[in-house]
Every structure is written in structure tokens, then in C-alpha cells.
Write a structure and sequence with these properties.
Length: about 190
């Protein structure tokens, strides 16, 4: 492998959407999502290439605890979360490149660079007892703060999102949101 990690660029949008479609389901992340990542200074997005082949991407954004508290409608989080937060938003690694430490390497670089000034959260989906980012969260010593059972169910209904986890025969999204947190290291 000959891996290179670089910031997301507009010319890779179609490839990013295709990789997203492969893992998250067709239409879950769109070109407009990636254009927002590129244009908005609060967002950081990175692509990983093996030679010239896009094999992974990672997106995070900077926010504050007030926005998280308001979004989740949970005042108790204000007592737990640091004032400045980096939310690990999306990470996709192509199937043939999984279990090789690529995702861990991406998250590690963001944590090492920002841990003195930010706490970190992961909104992970939980479906049938399985949490999608649990391995990474445990590896970096994130702790599970709380589960929000209907957060994405409502999101799917209100915004016409397609749940990429639910089975075809299921009528609605049954995922819950598991909120993981890693405290700022002062």
C-alpha cells in the first residue's frame, strides 16, 4: 500500500459520493454535503488514497457544547461536555481496506492536534445492540454518555433521510444514537 492523506477537494466529490453510497447507502451523503464540508471553515475533511484510488474519507466539525445540548434537547450535557467540541461526523473506509488502522490513524491525527483545546464527541448509530463506532470509541477511551432512542428516527422522517441500516422489510428507522465523549486534555 502507498497511502496518502489530503484535505477533501471539490474535484473528488463524485468519488466521495460513490464511496459513501457503497457503505452508507445510496443518497445518504450527497455532493451538497461534501461541498458544505469544503466551503465551511468549521469542517475538516480528509481523503485517503492508495496511489490514485480513493479508499477512505473522514469528516469532523468544530462546534460548542451549547449547540450539542440544543440539538439533543438535553440540558444535562452542559455539565459534562467541554465548552469547545469537535464532532467526529463521518468516516468511511472501503471494504477491502478495513481492519488496517486507516480510520484509527485519521481520528488519532485530529485528536493529537486538537486535544488541548477541544473535547470530542461521536454520534454513533446503534442497531440491534450493535454500535457502529464502538471499537474506535473504546480504542481512544471515549466513554458512552447516553443513548437517544428516537433521534435519527425523527431525522429520517422529518428530513426524508434514508436509514442506511434498516432492513427493507422494516417500515421505519429503528436506530438509536449513542453519544460518545472524550474530554479535553488540559
Amino acid at each position: 500500500m502507498n497511502l496518502t492523506t489530503v484535505k477533501i477537494k471539490k474535484e473528488w466529490t463524485n468519488d466521495l459520493v460513490l464511496l459513501s453510497d457503497e457503505f452508507l447507502g445510496k443518497g445518504y451523503l450527497t455532493a451538497s454535503y461534501f461541498n458544505k464540508v469544503i466551503a465551511n471553515k468549521r469542517y475538516d475533511g480528509y481523503c485517503v488514497f492508495d496511489r490514485e484510488k480513493l479508499i477512505a474519507f473522514f469528516v469532523c466539525y468544530k462546534t460548542d457544547n451549547r449547540k450539542i445540548v440544543n440539538n439533543l434537547k438535553d440540558e444535562s450535557l452542559a455539565l459534562i461536555l467541554d465548552a469547545n467540541i469537535i464532532c467526529i461526523d463521518t468516516m468511511v473506509v472501503s471494504l477491502e481496506y478495513r481492519k488496517q488502522g486507516i480510520g484509527k490513524s485519521l481520528i488519532n491525527s485530529v485528536i493529537k492536534t486538537n486535544r488541548a483545546n477541544y473535547g470530542f464527541i461521536i454520534h454513533a448509530w446503534k442497531y440491534n445492540g450493535s454500535i457502529n463506532m464502538a471499537g474506535i470509541a473504546n480504542y481512544f477511551s471515549f466513554f458512552l454518555v447516553k443513548e437517544y432512542p428516537d433521534l435519527w428516527k425523527n431525522d429520517c422522517q422529518d428530513n426524508n433521510f434514508i436509514c442506511f441500516v434498516k432492513k427493507e422489510e422494516e417500515i421505519e428507522c429503528r436506530c438509536s444514537c449513542a453519544l460518545f465523549y472524550l474530554k479535553q486534555e488540559k
